[in-house]
């Protein structure tokens, strides 16, 4: 049992290390391009789909509307997106990439593709398929992780 606990701990440590290293590198790359990594999903979605409403962006990316509103405001301030009224419903605002936004989109997507080639260099196609299955399983398992206030309460009360 103790051996399994050590293995699990090492796997979690490796996952955390990989995640931290990945996000550190991505942050540096995207900063060099002129965007924040958190903006990539919206830029990617708009680059792929074209014009969307904030509600459609929120629903597509599973992001809360206020978070989308803040990101849209920042992207607009940076000159990467523009807003205009919907042709059919003036109450709806459509969001789309500007020419500068499309340039950033193409640059970021190229960088992401290059990153993937480097990340999985030396792996066979079947190993990549296994990774995909493992990552999907980890993602599903993460969704089941409890978020429980009793953990915080117990810790704060000195119970460990």
UniProtKB/TrEMBL annotation:
<dbReference type="InterPro" id="IPR036390">
    <property type="entry name" value="WH_DNA-bd_sf"/>
</dbReference>
<dbReference type="InterPro" id="IPR036388">
    <property type="entry name" value="WH-like_DNA-bd_sf"/>
</dbReference>
<dbReference type="InterPro" id="IPR000835">
    <property type="entry name" value="HTH_MarR-typ"/>
</dbReference>
<dbReference type="Pfam" id="PF01047">
    <property type="entry name" value="MarR"/>
</dbReference>
<protein>
    <submittedName>
        <fullName>DNA-binding transcriptional regulator, MarR family</fullName>
    </submittedName>
</protein>
<dbReference type="InterPro" id="IPR011991">
    <property type="entry name" value="ArsR-like_HTH"/>
</dbReference>
<keyword id="KW-0238">DNA-binding</keyword>
<feature type="domain" description="HTH marR-type">
    <location>
        <begin position="8"/>
        <end position="140"/>
    </location>
</feature>
<dbReference type="GO" id="GO:0003677">
    <property type="term" value="F:DNA binding"/>
</dbReference>
<keyword id="KW-0805">Transcription regulation</keyword>
<dbReference type="GO" id="GO:0003700">
    <property type="term" value="F:DNA-binding transcription factor activity"/>
</dbReference>
<keyword id="KW-0804">Transcription</keyword>
């Amino acid at each position: 049992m103790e051996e399994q606990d050590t293995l699990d701990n090492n796997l979690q440590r490796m996952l955390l290390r990989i995640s931290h290293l990945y996000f550190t590198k991505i942050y540096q790359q995207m900063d060099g391009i002129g965007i924040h990594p958190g903006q990539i999903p919206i830029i990617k979605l708009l680059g792929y789909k074209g014009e969307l409403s904030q509600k459609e962006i929120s629903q597509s990316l599973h992001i809360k509307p206020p978070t989308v509103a803040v990101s849209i405001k920042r992207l607009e301030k940076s000159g990467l997106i523009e807003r205009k009224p919907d042709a059919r419903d003036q109450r709806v605002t459509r969001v789309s990439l500007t020419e500068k936004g499309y340039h950033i989109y193409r640059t970021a997507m190229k960088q992401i593709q290059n990153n993937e080639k480097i990340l999985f260099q030396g792996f066979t196609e079947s190993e990549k398929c296994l990774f995909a299955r493992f990552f999907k399983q980890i993602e599903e398992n993460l969704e089941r992780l409890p978020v429980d206030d009793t953990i915080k309460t117990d810790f704060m009360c000195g119970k460990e």
